[in-house]
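G., the chain you wanted modeled:
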Amino acid sequence: MPDRKHQFGGEWTTRKLEVLAKYLQTYTTALKNTPFHKLYIDAFAGTGYRDARRDNEEDSPQNTLFPDLVEPEPQSFLDGSASLALQTEPQFDQYIFIERSPDRCAHLESLKSEFPGLANKVDIHQGDANAKIQDLCAKDWRSNRAVLFLDPYGMQVEWETIKAIAQTKAIDLWLLFPLGIGVNRLLTKSGDISKSWRRRLDLLLGTENWYDEFYKVETMPTLFGDDKERVVKATMETIGRYFTNRLKGIFVGVAEEPGILRNSANNPLYLLCFAVGNERGKDIALRIAQHLLKEVR
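Predicted structure as tokens:
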């Protein structure tokens, strides 16, 4: 089996996983005596572990644009989200790990031997995360509840996937939105955006209307009595608020202030977003999530 090291991120990686681990423990405790079948779903699960850096997906535009993905981690080998989920007490009834890479799926299989008491509860799916999640969400969710962690390498998540999650009305979603590491960098200062980048933003945001939200044309008088137009690009705060409002349009509850994951230069990389699918569990889930998110602002 290949070396299972899975490299990704910096100190911000630790912070997001701390929030997730605390939420998972609170979640399973709250639902411990309910009749629901409780699932943990991890898309882009990787190897289940991580070390200093994680390699980028070969087909992602961020390969050449986003060096922040390879910041050094203070520890050489740490638990990733899949491993942390398996350590959660009380336990989930089922764990679903999704990963496109065959090698990483092989690493995930090894988790069954490391957690033998949970081996029969672990399902590993190799393939495209968007397709796998949409298929999973199309099933009957009335007797199920889940926490789903969407932690893409960059901009792989599609809005259709997020919408499918919301439509189950049974899933609490933790999602990393690629604010500074993706969207902001594809939004050029001039407003001239290539067709391929526009397509990537359309898929992520679920609409073509984002351009009119992120760019404004200002008219300024010149010293010579005529007018000059200039394109003004939205701030990262505006972009983040726009995405939060998009989530509000499909989920029953959304954390108003996402966590901000920053690199060592204090530049925002991701927003750690939280959304609730079930109306009855909305209030308590939001209270817990918003309390945890204060740790990453």
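The two ends are 39 Å apart (CA to CA).

Shout if anything looks off.
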